[in-house]
From TrEMBL:
InterPro entries named among the record's database cross-references: P_C10
UniProt keyword terms in alphabetical order: Cytoplasm
Coiled coil: none
Keyword presence, GTP-binding: no
Gene name linked to the record: LOC113205012
Transmembrane segments: none
BP term (GO), one: post-embryonic development
A Pfam family reported for this protein in Swiss-Prot or TrEMBL: P_C10
Family named by the database record: Belongs to the UPF0456 family.
The species this protein was found in: Frankliniella occidentalis
Name this protein carries in UniProt: Protein C10
Lineage: Eukaryota, Metazoa, Ecdysozoa, Arthropoda, Hexapoda
PANTHER family for this protein: PROTEIN C10
Compartments in which it is found: Cytoplasm
Length: 104
């Protein structure tokens, strides 16, 4: 069920009207994380909320929290769910360049 929901979320994101809204919001936000959270994140979350209610989750904030908790729990054990969740997150998180020599 979770894998199917994540696939449907990705399909919704890729629909031309939604993809153009997300692209415009991403272009306006650039690589600024705060702007991404203000403009891109809400679009992706609305699409996600529309999809997950078809999978039995309640509408609104409570449903999105339940779904998120379920996904995070399952992605530890299921590489496919982890990959799909990563793809959804990539639509609102800025690209983070990796530096091979840096240590944290």
């Amino acid at each position: 069920m979770t894998e199917a929901a994540l696939n449907c979320i990705l399909k919704a994101i890729d629909q031309s009207e939604n993809a153009s809204k997300i692209k415009e919001a991403r272009d306006n936000a650039g690589n600024d994380m705060i702007k991404r959270m203000q403009f891109v994140f809400p679009i992706v979350m609305m699409l996600q909320m529309d999809v997950i209610k078809e999978y039995g989750f309640s509408e609104g904030r409570h449903g999105i929290i339940q779904f998120g908790q379920l996904v995070r729990a399952l992605e530890r054990e299921d590489a496919e769910i982890a990959l799909l969740h990563s793809k959804v997150r990539s639509h609102f998180l800025p690209d983070i360049p990796s530096s091979s020599g840096a240590s944290l």
